[in-house]
Amino acid sequence: MQYAKMRERKKKLKDQIDFFEFFKEKYFKIMNDLKFNSNKDYEARNYLSNILKQKEENNNYDLDEILRGFKLALQSMENIMIYGCGPSLESSIEWIIKSHGISFFESTFNIAADGAARFLKEKKIPINSIFTDLDGITRDEFNYAEYIIVHCHGDNSKMLEFFKQDILNFINVIGTTQVEPLDNLVNPGGFTDGDRILYFLRSLLVPVHKIFLIGMDFKNIIGKYSKPFFTSNQESNSIKTQKLDIAVKLIEQIIPKIQNKIYFVNTHFISNNFQYLSLGDFMRIL
Fold this sequence. Notes:
Layout: H1 2-17, H2 20-34, H3 38-57, H4 63-75, E1 79-83, H5 88-100, E2 109-113, H6 116-122, E3 129-132, H7 139-142, E4 147-152, H8 157-162, H9 164-169, E5 173-177, H10 193-201, E6 210-214, E7 221-222, E8 234-235, H11 238-254, E9 261-265, E10 275-277, H12 279-285
Helix pairs in contact: 1-4, 10-11
């Protein structure tokens, strides 16, 4: 009886994070607007789910246990730093390191959106978690973070195959999908790596948390850490620009559902619905 109750409590955490039923109308509109094929998302979902099933068969995967560990780690810190791949990422991090040293990042919960993890690793900044669809990181970053939240969608099946052995070997993997989730996957809502982080976190936050977004620029210039093969900042193509616009709208929609303070740090104006901080004001708030 006690074991059954414990299992029930575990399942409730996944239920708290799953928001597909609330998000699916937005998802299908996005897919229609972008003219993307939802069937490929289902295929990618099934592929990642099967990889995770292999981990389960080897007694190497318990989603509920990993989610609880992520929640405990998150709630052990007061300040949550979310890093995007925008052009302001490098200058912002360099300023913080110069002013306060690498040790500053040991007292924050550091979440990288995909390729931002490469820059954090280069600077030897500890990464608590990476949210990634696998096209911005290498195996070095995959095995550097404490938690990897791997997203599957119709365009990254080849990357899922490339990282299959890493997913099998790495303990703290959480799989996310943008279609109806299976038992071993989560759909928190959101569409890009950046906005999906906030959708994932919303049920795990406690009142003391403050959230700071760094390198989240959402303009037509994307940072060189967006892709491993970029050597400089790039002008976004039309599809990328559409995705960035979608991300801004989704963040605008999720912020009112989060009671915690959320700040964009050292970036230009994006939306009237966001709060902005200079680097100096950021450090004063901390």
